[in-house]
Amino acid sequence: xxxxxxxxxxxxxxxxxxxxxxxxxxxxxxxxxxxxxxxxxxxxxxxxxxxxxxxxxxxxxxxxxxxxxxxxxxxxxxxxxxxxxxxxxxxxxxxxxxxxxxxxxxxxxxxxxxxxxxxxxxxxxxxxxxxxxxxxxxxxxxxxxxxxxxxxxxxxxxxxxxxxxxxxxxxxxxxxxxxxxxxxxxxxxxxxxxxxxxxxxxxxxxxxxxxxxxxxxxxxxxxxxxxxxxxxxxxxxxxxxxxxxxxxxxxxxxxxxxxxxxxxxxxxxxxxxxxxxxxxxxxxxxxxxxxxxxxxxxxxxxxxxxxxxxxxxxxxxxxxxxxxxxxxxxxxxxxxxxxxxxxxxxxxxxxxxxxxxxxx
Length: 360
What we know:
Subcellular location: Cytoplasm
Strand content: 25-35%
Pfam families: Queuosine_synth
EC number: 2.4.99.17
Pathway: tRNA modification; tRNA-queuosine biosynthesis
Oligomer: single chain
Organism: Sodaliphilus pleomorphus
Strand order of the largest sheet: 4-3-19-18-16-5-14-15-17
Number of strands: 19
């Protein structure tokens, strides 16, 4: 398929800038994680239902399994100043390259103002200093943070200066509340700069309802990077190359997923990152394998899935790799028709928006 086949008109007012939430009389912010709208697409018939997200459990039975991504988003966006000129610099932390030497792979804006050897200062008192030691791409850099304390202390101080890395399509500055909003309740393994958005809809109450119904919750880790948001600049999708992302699938998870599939239980991937992760580790027999490493798997239609029977996902931006994977799973025509319905019915798009469940 071609890139142009994944375009559609999306009014800006349908892109959610915040999740559903309210403030109590005491001023406390309560996020209504499981109260968003849910569009249910039956991929075999094309039938569409309109529900509330709490209804997601109604489509599954005892011993069915939900697989979640337990990655944790870290405060990756820093604002600093360049030495001498004082020019404002935005630094986006991508990943730590070397713990001992405090080396980080980063993006910087504006890139043209930064050269090897430049020092950057962060914090109101310039307490954090970094030196540019390499130019890896036109925008990318390697920074060495000049900090003499222990690593745990360094990370704590670095992240205290950071801001939540909201997606590019949210046209506002991060707020303190985004630290909780843009994190799943089961986030555990730090390393992502993009939240697994489908997981944001699960509240503790909904997880308890799953438990009561007998639906198993299992976890893998895929540290989602900015490759999910990178523009695709080729019409021929076979020529696009995804950025590599770190993936961990435990031996226990592989055994439990494979046993459930062999027993005829339904496996629901909570998010495109989970589905891509499982498909990255699948063997010839349709079983997933334990894995610790990196994946750059790019899925677009047509594609034969062998790991999941259902998918929970948010509504994605035009031309995005997440939309392409969703269309591959649900069927291109059915998914694109469902997106037109979602626009017409004013569903909210993006990480803070509404959700879609794709089932047979």
